[in-house]
Amino acid sequence: MQLKDLLYKVQLTSVSGSTSVEITDVQTDSRAVTPGCCFVALRGTVTDGHQYIAQAVAAGARAVVAEKLPDSLATNVTYVEVKDAALACGWMSHTFYGEPSTHLHITGVTGTNGKTTVATLLYKLFTELHFTCGLISTVENKMGCETLPATHTTPDAVSLNKLLSQMVKAGCTHVFMECSSHAIHQQRIAGLQFAGAIFTNITHDHLDYHKTFDEYIRVKKSWFDSLPATAFALTNAEDKRGNVMLQNTRAKKQTYALKTLATYKGKILESSLTGLQMMVDELEVYFKMIGEFNAYNLMAVYGAAVSLGADKQEALRKLSMLSGAEGRFECVQTGNRNVMGIVDYAHTPDALLNVLATINKMRQGAGQLITVVGCGGNRDTAKRPVMAQVACEHSNKVIFTSDNPRNEDPLAIIQDMESGVSITQKKKFISIPDRKEAIKTAVLMSHAEDIILVAGKGHEKYQEVKGVKYPFDDKVVLMDMLTMMDK
Questions:
Q1: pLDDT in tens, 325-346
Q2: What is the radius of gyration, based on Cα positions, of the chain?
């Protein structure tokens, strides 16, 4: 593709050199540049791509797109100056890979909690409805029946468009993807044509990145504002920011709810640790999913499915047979001790509260709730004491431990958590930095009818310490410990 064709939707500030040159690839990583490539210099949160322009040119870059051009320009290289390199990269990637989103029905899901469950359920539902589908999520990416590894909730613009083009070639018609606030802000989804957007909820998270809650909301809303009139915008009517998302969008405005009037209305008839009995659009349906928070997720999926043209009754019938995403309220139970383990990805105060409230509503007998929880390093520190407070208020016993400490001291993270516990709750918790030991201790202190919640990591198969990812799976560790106690 010629550079001038690649740039036709990009707002240019200046150009040095010819745009009538052939471009063989688009890259944002100078280490991946090959001869004939166009290198886009992005300003990241850790490194600035402008520092690597010379390296990209030395590797054979035929063109460079940047917000600030270097003082010394190489011959036979075209330099393009733009106001927003990330936005340019989104449009260029979409163009380079043949505008794949125009050949697909893409539905994006944003919100603090529920993104993975909603996207995964939509993928499973439309696969059951005999469509060839793609999934882009925190847990995994799917292309038809093929599973691909997922490194980010939403991939970078180049990787995302390359993946979407592969999905087009594989015959996919529908794609369901998580759209994180980071991805929206960093323009990773710029240029994509969406069939629909779903907003689940918004709570305290990612303030290490967005700095203020208002900015976090504004970023998510900016995506809804950009939707075309042909798309649908589906929002949770019972989240107090739900209607904010719809204020300026041109898309078809729709809502879902359990307790108020909405386009898609559900009602919980019975909730237990085996599933949900619900009334949805005057039809009584049983779902395998557990808890009120999953009732909201199910309504989001149902509303999106109908918006995409699915038959209401058939959508509900298929949904009733589906389970959720890995690491989302996964139950683990072994042997004769009658102790239930639950693994959940809850890593925000609101998500943890939802899970704990769900468990407490369904607990029976004299069983206690034992919670194992930690907080990630190099992330929003303000939520640490709140997470600890929530855990202690809604559990009988709590063990604070490490999550993914990354480059922080696990003990310092735990101290931040401990600062949020009130004097009256201090007897409820102990701190064990080693996560495996923490889970083992929870199992050792459990008795018949107790429930052990291991929160924070869910589907993750690693623990990140000092830049190294060590194998670790909460579900496997919990299962092993419960099995050991049965012997």
A1: 888 899 888 766 789 999 999 9
A2: 24
